[in-house]
Structures are given as structure tokens and as C-alpha cells.
Queue: 3 jobs
Job 1
Amino acid sequence: ESRTKILVIVHDSSDISNPFLYIMPGVQLAAENLNVSLESCSVASLLSRPADESARQIRENGFHGILWFASNFNGNEPLIETLRKTDLPVLLPHAGRKDQQITGFSTMGTDYRKVMEDGLRYLAAQGHRRVGNISKDDMRGITAEEYFQCIRRVGLDDDPALLSLTGNEIQDREAVIEAAAHLMTELDDPPTALFCFSDFFALHVYEYLHRENFRIPDDVAVLSIGGQIGCNFLKPSLSAIDFGSLDIGRSVVRFLLEMICDKRRIPFIVTPHHITERESTKGLAYHQKYRKGNQL
């Protein structure tokens, strides 16, 4: 029985925030169940030959489709040309609409505007009014204007001081801690909840809050985006908007098989997300009356 053969292209990166680490187990499970053969290859390996030669080798090796774990394209990446020359279906498992437009490849991705709104609505429903947001400068493609429109739509305080941007490094510990300290100690009316750009931001926020003896969630609730780092093991356990990385991995294989069998391209597929509530946001604390156990 012949097996569908898929080439998995990965970047040379040991970064723990790389989505590949969390999505790939689902890809492997689905491949095993669906009789699909996976073969991994680095970008550097494919770029070691001219584009025509690499594309020809991919075809001659009997691959039926390609998964490329990459995002944030600028259009000048040389591998784009190589993969176009294969004439095989290419799927980007965790990227954005702009990546699809730039590359022309089918793309699966999160609707970050919906993620942001769902998170803010959840915190508003918990009784919070002042929510601090600690984010990278690019805010996953959401502009500050769009963010504050969303804040007003869900009924939260639109004080600009509650949005704290940290630059564009995913792992800038000092910048995240500085942002948390600013929000919690330098505002006349500090936030009662912190919404973190990622689980990795939340780890640094936890570090700061524990060090300064803020109680989570009594003094300030914490919600992150990702749900990828063992949120149950943090103390208190971390509430997160979960991408469902394992489910994304399973879906990736199914969608690529559809593209191979039907000989069609699917431009953009929105992957679902959900909020997993844990201890860091549970229970409504009466922040208007109490902060750190002292009556104001």
C-alpha cells in the first residue's frame, strides 16, 4: 500500500517559544493514524543547492505535499521560489493572513483580533474594569487604535497607560518585568488584571509579582495567550487562551491531504482557540475596595 509522503521543513532554532515544538506532536500522531510518511528537512539544507535543483530533488523523491513551519515573511526568502517550483501544495501550519498573501501558500492561523476580544470580554465578565496589557510592539498585527476600540466595545477602561509595550523580542525578560512594575506601582489606579502577550511573558510577570508579594489572583489576575508551557504546573495555575497546538497539528495533516487529493489550494484556514480558566483568574476579587489586603 503506497503512503502519502510529506516533507516537513523546519528552521534551525532551539527557541522554546517556537510553535513547531508544540504543533509537531499532533502532526506525528495524525500522520501515523492516516498512513502518512513524514520526512523532516532544514531550510539550510534546501538552500544549499540552486532553487531548480532543490525543487527537482523534492519532486523526484516522491513527495506529495509540503509543510513549512515559518511565518512573518517579507517576500525575499529564497526558499519561497524553490517551493513554488515544485508545483506541490504547500501549507504553513501557524502563520498569518499577510504570510499567505506574500507567499501564495495555503496558511493556517489564529484570528488574533478574536483572541484579544475574547480575552478582554472574559476579564470584563470577571468584574475587571482596569486591565493592563503587556505586549510586544507589533501586538500580533493589531494596532493600538484597534485595541482601544475593542477595550471600549467590551466596557473596559480605555486609559492609554494600561497598554505597556516591550519592544519586539519574544523573550525580553527585563522589559516584561519593567512593564509589570510600571503597571502595578507607577499608576494612581493600578490594573486588577494583567493580559500577557504570551505564556513566556506571563512567566516573567509571575516572577515579578511573586518577588514583590502581589497575590495572584487576589491582588491582580493574570491571563496569557498560548497555553503551551505547562500552565497547570505554575503556582497558581495560569489561565490562558489556548491555541490547541495538538489539534492544530492533527488538522494540518488532514488539510494537506485534502489539498493533495482534490488538487486545490485553501488560502487561509482559521484555527480555533478557547479559554482555559485556571487559578490565576478564578474568583472575583473586590479590587475597588481592597488591594493587597489593605482597605483603601
Note: The chain has two domains: 4-110+243-272, 112-238+278-295.
Job 2
Amino acid sequence: MATLDITCLRSLVSVASFGGVRRAAEALHLSQAGVSGHLRRLETELGFPVVTRQGRNIAFTSRGEDVLREAYRLLGEHDDALHRLLGPASGELLVVSTEHATEALLRAVARVLSRDHPDRPVRFRFHRSARVREFVHDHSADVALGIGDLGQGTRHITELPLTWVGPSDRAPDTGALVTFTAPCTVRDHILASEAAAGGAVVRECADLVSLLSAVKSTGGVTALPRLRLSEPGLTALDSLPSLPSVPLTLVTSNRLASRTRDGIIAALVSTA
């Protein structure tokens, strides 16, 4: 019977979030060979390719996207269970981020934390902003990055312009709308747009991986922050009415020194 190793799944999610094996290895404090080995172990266990090379980049296969979706869910449940049973991991710095954060923004946060706390491991968790707010509310996140109001201590970083996107391999069906499930600020902007007046929601998705897959499979359209326009298989659409921007926001724990907090803010502003 096949099994899914949590360490391998964490490497898989990091590769997706940081945009490659090298950057994932840096964030996890592992060697590139170690992260690559985790991916190969997953593929061996499952019996099918999870990732494929596209030039110097790595892309997920269709079935690999399914694995990635399950990896997000399983890691969340695993980490929540450990937190309930054991409490926060000693010495660990927890960064909880919206799925819309790009690898450049995540690297900016990781660099500051590694600079100021070189001996403390940094763990990233990725959730919808509604779930990020829960981490802020119970004070379990050292750094929380999301869209909109995250609760007490929310700091505005920048405005993220939204851009319509569709599949790059065919003419998009602009009347077929793909959205996140509610609650979601991006979803609200999509449904309030002029484009929604003559269209219909064909798929509602619980996470970013599902959303991207749905756009490719249905041929429909969605909206993403402009920072994410490098997603493979998608192309920006300039023919649809413009959308309002969404605020990228930050909350840092009082456990972090003001130097670290200010460093994170400066790094995010310069990156965004």
C-alpha cells in the first residue's frame, strides 16, 4: 500500500511556493539534492510523474497538481494536529501566508528571518486569507501575510492590481467564470465586475491549485494579482473590464523584535 511521507509533501509544497528546487531547499534549510530526492521518492511511491522539466523550470504534471492539492490539505491537518497535541514547536518561526504571495515575497520574508534568527527554523504554511486571520487571532503565527484586514495589528504593505487571466492554449470563454469559494475578496471583485453581468460561475475552488487547474480545464477566466502572471498555462487578458486592486497586508507577532518587523516590512515593500 502506498504511503505519503510528510517530509516529502513539505518539499513538494515548497517547490510550488518558492518556484523551484533551489529556492525551496534554501527555505527548508536542505540541500537541493535532498529536495529532489523527496520529489523522486513521492513519484516512486505513487507510480507516476509529479513534476516535469520545462527548460530551467519545474512544472507540475496534471496528476502532480492533484498531489499538490492533497499535500496542502494533508500538511495543514498534520500541523494542526501537532499544534493541538504538543503546542507550538520550540524555537520555530511560523510564517502563515496567503496563497497569492509570490516566491519573491516569501523569499523576502525568509531572508529577514534568517538574518535575524539564523539558528531558528522557519516553517511556511499557506492558506486562504480567512484562515490566515485565525492564526492572527490565536497569536500562533510569527508572521502573517494576507489579503485585506487580518485583525489586530494589520499593516498595509501595498495594493496588488488584479488582472483577468485565461488558458494560454486556446481562446478563453470569457462568460465562464472560475472563482474561489466564499469568503474571498478576489471573488467579490470578480462577481461585482461588468464581465460577470453576462457570464456565469462554472467552478468554485477551495484553493489556488484547484483554481488554476479549473481555468485550464474549463477554458474559463478568473482574476489573479498581477504578481502571479507567470503561472504556466495561463495568459493575461486585456480585453475584459479592469478590476479594483486588493491590499496586501501583514501582521507580525510581538515575539519578533522591532528590527525584524521593520526589516520584513521594508523587504516586502521593495519587492512588491
Note: The chain has three domains: 1-86, 88-158+247-272, 162-244.
Job 3
Amino acid sequence: MKENPSMHERLAERLACILTKLNMGMKLSVKDLALEFSVSTRTVSRDFDRMSGHLPLLQDEKTKKFYLDPAYLTKIKAQETPQLSGMSHFYTSADIPFLHNMLDQQTAQFYGLKGFAYERAEQYEALFQAVGSAIQQCQQIAFLFKGELQLAQPYRLIQLQGCWYLAAVCEGNLKSYPLSHIVLQQKTEAGAVFEPDPMILAQLQTGDYDWLYQDTFEVEIKVSAELAAYFKQSSVLPKQSIKAELNDGCLLLTSEVGHAMQILPLVQFWMPALSIVQPESLRQELKGNLERCLQQMS
């Protein structure tokens, strides 16, 4: 049986993301990371075991959170990431420029990471360089978004549950723009210096990026009777609510999401206990994902 390359890619991305968070001085909870990446706590514990042999990891006695020895902060280099994660054979040379930006102490604050990067970073290399420079120098940028010209004040590049976004202020409002729809433009207004809003900076610093999804939709999920009690007590899905308790013991839930990748990995993780009832388009997308996975493993 062939190994599934997508599993290797996701493992490498998860480890790189954890290393980036550690390098920024964050204290990380095994449980929180397991929810963020839709994996088990045992998997995250193994991740820390891999890194502990290469990094001075410390653990808070009360919270049990892992963090990097303060003397080592910001010293992780992009070229060292494959070795430090213990998974050097999963990384390619194309990953290094992006990892350098993530780990550089002067630019890391302009990025936000939460969940897997389903969109490969290298396809946005030119955008990262131009927008990252504008964020660092507090300069306005001009770009076409879905065919319309936007003049905005860029604050942060954010990877959330699979997709990359630009968080920027346009016409006085904080908005999100998927990078896949952005085309930079050369305009005379671009380059003008702006004063960052402290309140917006504080909001972005919290790491709560649900506001990025300006257009959301509802997903109906069926939970098996075996796990119904657990899902009644725990909020596992984004903006989860109970729709109905069925006679056979199963549970109907609704989840409000802004992107398919915000819910699909979670459903796949909990299968077969979870299944998508509607929308039908999302059911078919999940089915296609599973069929491709089986083909890769055969």
C-alpha cells in the first residue's frame, strides 16, 4: 500500500506552524492544538516529543502548556525547521522562503496562523513580499478585488483553516480579503503612510479570526447515538447549536461557517460518527475528498 502524501504535507505544515508559535513566545496547550488541527491529543503529544529532542521545550506545571526557553526565542531559522521538527524528509526547498518570513522576529507579528495551510504558500510569494513590506512600513496598498479597485491599509496576513486572507482597513472598516482574489495595482495613492489603529492591533493580537468570514452559511450535521451525549456537552464545531434530538438517539446539529475547510476536516476527523446532512454541495465535496484519499492509498 502506498503512503498518502497529503498526510505527510499536513504533518509538515502542522509542525512548522507549532514551531512558529513557539518561536513567537506563545504557550501552547495540547488540547487547543488538537482542536485547531483536527487531530487527537495523542498526535499533538507525539509532535512535542519529536521536537523535544531538538529544542529546549519547557512545560508550565499548572497549565501543562508547552513553551520555548526564553533564551531561545526568535532564534529558530527557516533552514533549521525541518531538522528541529524531526521531519526533515517532508520539507522541500520551496518551503524555506515562507518559513523564513514566519520565523523572522521582525515579520512574524504580521502573520496569523490557525489550522492547516491547504493553500500552498509559495503561490503567494510575490504578494507576501509586497504586502508584508507595506504592513511593516505602514503603507497603503491598492489592489483589484473581484474586479473592483480597493485602497486599503494592510494590517496582517492570516492563514485560517486552509485559506490565506489579508486583514485590512478599507473605508474605515476592518475587512478580510482572500488572497486568491487579490491583484495588486500601482496607484499614486498606494504607498501613503498611515497610523495603525491600536484597537485593531489589539483585536488581531487575540488570535480570534472568526470575523474574517463575512459571508457565512449553515451546515447541518448528524451525530451518531454513541457520541450524542459528548456533542451535547461540548462545542466541537464552529458556532455549534443543537437542532433536534432524534428518536434513535442521534443528534442533529447546525454549524455556521464561512468556508468549507472550516468544517470538512472536523467531520472527516470524527467520521463515521459525524455525517453532513446539508448542504448537498458540501456532502458531495466530502465524498470526493474521501474517494481521492482512497485512490491515493490503493
Note: Residues 5-23 form the longest helix (19 residues).
